[in-house]
Every structure is written in structure tokens, then in C-alpha cells.
Amino acid sequence: MPTPHDPGSDQPEPDPLPPSLVAYSDYEVLRRLGRGGMGVVYLARNLLMGRLEALKLQADPGPGTEFLREVQAAARLAHPNIVAVYSARVVLGTLVLAMEYIDGCDLGRLVARRGRLPVPSACELARQAAVGLQYAHDAGVIHRDIKPSNLILAQASGPAVLKILDFGIARADGVAEGAVSIGTPAFAAPEQFENPSASDARSDIYALGGTLFYMLTGGPPFSAGTVTELMQCHREGPPPRLESVRPGVPSGLARLVERMLAKNPADRPQTAGEVARAIVAFVEPDAPTWELAAPPPAGNSLVTLPPTTSDKDSTIPLIPTVPTVIPTVPVGSASAGRPKRVWLASAVGIVLAVGIYAGCASWPRPGTITTPTARSGDSSRPVVGPVQLFDGQSLAGWVVDGGDPGEWKVEDGVITATGIPKGPRTWLLTEKEYGDFRVRFDYRLEAGANSGFAFRAVPGERPVLTPGGRPWPVPHHQQIEISDDRAKRWANLPTGQVNGGGSIGGPALKPTHKPPVEGEWNRMEVELRGQAIRVRVNGEDLLVDNLEYLVRAGSLFPALFRTRGRIGFQQYEHKADFRNVTIEEFLPPNP
């Protein structure tokens, strides 16, 4: 695959690396991520730590400056809702900041692409931001430039966590010593225009209120043609009433946003923790628009993402592979005997990215339905494989998730699964995760058997699939049905169907016809590109559709909101056999 440094590439010749990066031997610079008023950001590999980092370059502020002191303070912040600053070093007269690299989408791009967010989703994201702000404020660090583009939704294979970018750094980028940044005019507090040096934690609260308004309405509180007009709006103009812009929003939430956007800092909530406590009411069971299950056991978390632009609010529980449960700011008294607690989970491992967020581009626009191309030679998507996933001799590279491991065996070059009548389900998942792919395998069913092909799975995941419901008692994953639907029990679960996760008769992607059933070997091909899915059996299309339909229909299956995960097979009742399992991976488009 050609790269920007490959002489055979069709891409334009890249800009030469600045001398400071050439001289910084601790890193292998991979590519430039972005350039703007806030400096230039590069993606680089830390050769000592073996991880990807974002390197931000800007002019050396000199020793003892206020900016350097703020950067040093920001580098001491260690919180799951804050993008980490690993180090700051002056190289050949240039300050090089090494930061966490997040693979996600900033809220500005997310709202621009998706439209206004569901109320509970917007409130949960704002709550996470408030928790991160309270931690920073307690450490004496003020952000001064909270805005949608500085709030990033980090998404790995399972969890979705909001992270705040540019703590301490946002204040002083491109600002000479003695000057103070006023933040971004569309979201800056009135006092930042009048006396920037007097801004404090309450200025961040004002900006967070404007950001919450943006998530709920699709636009900032004030719009004006010039910066001077914007300043005048922030200082004197009342913001639009939230209920008039977003009818049906809870009145308590509207009053909270109004307080956060108060002109006088003394009239706002005085701490970010107070905001976190107040906003919990709109993401917990007492909220009229969304019910959050009682605090789940370790290994589960409920984090929301916006699936739709419609007026119908939805929530999507995302459960991390390896959870670290982090208690948030105390949220006050319990009501009706149920403690108000919000659990936030973060994944263990390196979370990737800053600058340009590729995750945005992969999420389809509302109302868009696309189908996967059948061209394996698509030049925009390099292909790796096909690779054999089953060697015909052992289950090396696979793990059993749920049920009795003894239900999965290898006999005569075939994976054989014998389900226990009436369950529990058992799953055989790959050890490796995959993004977009094409999988082919042979399957054979015993009469009355129910099986399936799982995708974007996380081992041990026990999703909540109904509003206000409880997690599944055993692992459960999104799958393509493989069943003998002549059996009365499976009549509504034909081979090729993808269910939304609710009750029988709920939203589903339905196959166009019924393939052969028991006793015969059949060849299935599954192609998944983003949300576009294609299922073929014996060379004929069985399903060509888009998972976004299930999202818009209110499905809460976590796999629908991930871009990667494990694949594998499910077995519930009777016997199913699998063989000749291969996969082709579609890599990201050539840069």
C-alpha cells in the first residue's frame, strides 16, 4: 500500500518534517494530523513506550512563563475524561507537546453529521465533561476554551468515553506572554471578553452550558456575523429559551442550562460538580425520557451515544471488555429508596487520537442507506487475506464465551457445537478483533437447531436490550441467525436475519428467502463495511441491508455502535457444524 513517503505513491509530496521533529529521536513520525491556529499536530510512535502519541508543535514560550506553568499543571492531570499530556520538551527552539492520541469523534463534528442529540445522550456526555472539569478545577487548572470540538468521544472496541482536549494548552496557543486567551467566541463566557485574566472555573461552566445547548439544539446559543456582535450577545443578549428551540425538553434541564449561561458568574452553578449532580436526574431512572438500570455489577457500564436525529430519544449501553469502575462526583440524596449513582467505565489499554477524527467519517448520515460493494478489489479499501481462522485440528485462536466449553469440539476437521436444550447459549469467539471484513464458512444444522454468526462482539458482554431493563444473565452478542426455522420455536428467527435485540416481532433485518436447512452443508458469506451488511448463502444474496435501520428503530445492541469486535459462532439447541472458516479484512482507505 503506498504511503506518503513511498516514491511510488500517487499522493502529493508531503511537507518536510520540521527540524524539531527530525531531531527528536525518541519518536517515529508517521504523518501530519492537522494544522491550524493552535499549531501543528503530528501522529508519531513513541519508540521507547511502543505507543502512538500526538505531537503538537508551537513556539517555545520561554522558561518561567505562565503558559509553561499551565502546561506543567495540565500534564499532572490523570483522569479518564481528560486527554493526557504526557510530556513537554523544547527541541531546537520549538515546544513539542506529547499527548494521548484518541480514535474518536469530537462533538462538533458529531452534531454536524448527526444533528441534535437525544436528551439523555447529551446529558450523559455533559455529565462526563463536568466530572472531568471538577477534577481539573480541584487541581487548580482552568480550561478556558470548552467547546464541542474540544470534547472528544473516544470509542475503542467497547466503551465510549468523553475526553476533554487541550487542558491548559488552549489558553495560551499563539498567545504572547502577558496576553490571555479569551477562548472561542461562540462559547466564551462574558467575563472572558471583559477581563480574561479574571476568568475562573465558572467560565468553564458557562462554556459547558453553551456546549450542552449545542448538543440539544444543533447550534450554539448565539449566532452573529462578527466577533464583535458575538461578544455583545454574550455580554447582554439573553440566550434563546431551550424549550422554544427544542420542544419537549424537560423543564428542569432547561432551567439548568439557563443557569449555566447566566451573565453573572455568581448566578451560575458554582462548581462543575454541582452541574454533574444536577444533570444526573436526566440520565437516571427518574428521568421521563430515559431509564438507566440500577448500578450494574463490575464489568458493565452504561454510556450513551446518539443513534438518531429524530425526536425520539434512545440510549445505547456500551460495555467495556476490561472495566475499571470509576466513581464520579457524589450526586446527592437517594429517591424512592434507589441511590442516584452513575457508573463510568474506561477501557484498559491505549486509547487512540487528536486532531482529525476518522471515527466521524465512518458513521453514516441520518437517512442514508448504503450497501456493501461486492468488488474485492476496491482500490480504496486494501484487503488482507483471505486468512484461515480454523486449522481443522484445534480451536487455537478461539475462546469459548458462556456455557460449557465442552459443548465445542473439533471432530474430523469440523467445529462441532452441541447446544443444551433451553440453554444457556454458548459462543465461540475469535481471540482477535476485526473491523470491516468478509467472512466465509460452511455450516450444517441438525433438525431443530438454532445457531448464529456473531460480529463486533466483546467477551462477557451482558447487554441491556430494553429501556429500564437488566443486563442479560449470560453473555449475549449481536448475530446473524442460522437456524432451522421449520421448527416452530425458530419460525421467527430464519437464517440470515439480524434482530434488534428486543422481543420477538421487534425490529429486524429480514432475509429475502429461506436457504436449505438441516442435514446439508451450506456456504455462508458475511460482508460488513461500516453499517452496511451483506449475507449470502450458496452464492445467492440472502440479506443486503444497513444496520442503521436497527439503530433508528431503537435497538440497544452495543455492537451496532462499535466499529470493531470479535467474530464467532453461537449455539443454543441441538447440533451445528462449521468448517472452512476464512476472513478478508478491509483496511482503512489509502491515505
Distance between the termini: 9 Å
The rough form would be described as globular
Helix content: 10-25%
CATH topology of the largest domain: the name is Transferase(Phosphotransferase), domain 1
Total number of β-strand segments? 24
In CATH's first tier, which class of the largest domain applies? Mainly Alpha
Number of domains: 2
So how many helices? 13
Mean of the pLDDT scores? 73
CATH H-level superfamily title of the largest domain: Transferase(Phosphotransferase) domain 1
CATH architecture designation of the largest domain: Orthogonal Bundle
**SSE-based structural type:** alpha+beta
Structural features, described:
With 591 residues, this protein is an alpha+beta fold. Helix content is 19%, strand content 27%. The chain has 2 domains: 104-359, Orthogonal Bundle (Transferase(Phosphotransferase), domain 1), CATH 1.10.510; 383-586, Jelly Rolls (Sandwich), CATH 2.60.120. The protein has helices spanning 19-22, 66-75, 107-114, 119-138, 169-172, 190-194, 201-217, 227-236, 242-245, 251-260, 272-279, 358-362, 548-552; strands at 27-36, 39-46, 51-59, 85-91, 94-100, 104-106, 151-155, 160-164, 323-327, 343-347, 383-388, 398-401, 408-411, 414-419, 426-430, 436-445, 450-457, 479-483, 498-499, 508-509, 522-529, 532-537, 540-546, 566-586. Strands 11, 12, 13, 14, 15, 16, 17, 18, 21, 22, 23 and 24 form a 12-stranded antiparallel beta sheet that branches. Helix 4 runs antiparallel to helix 11 (272-279) and helix 7 packs across helix 10 (251-260). The radius of gyration is 26 Å and the shape is globular.
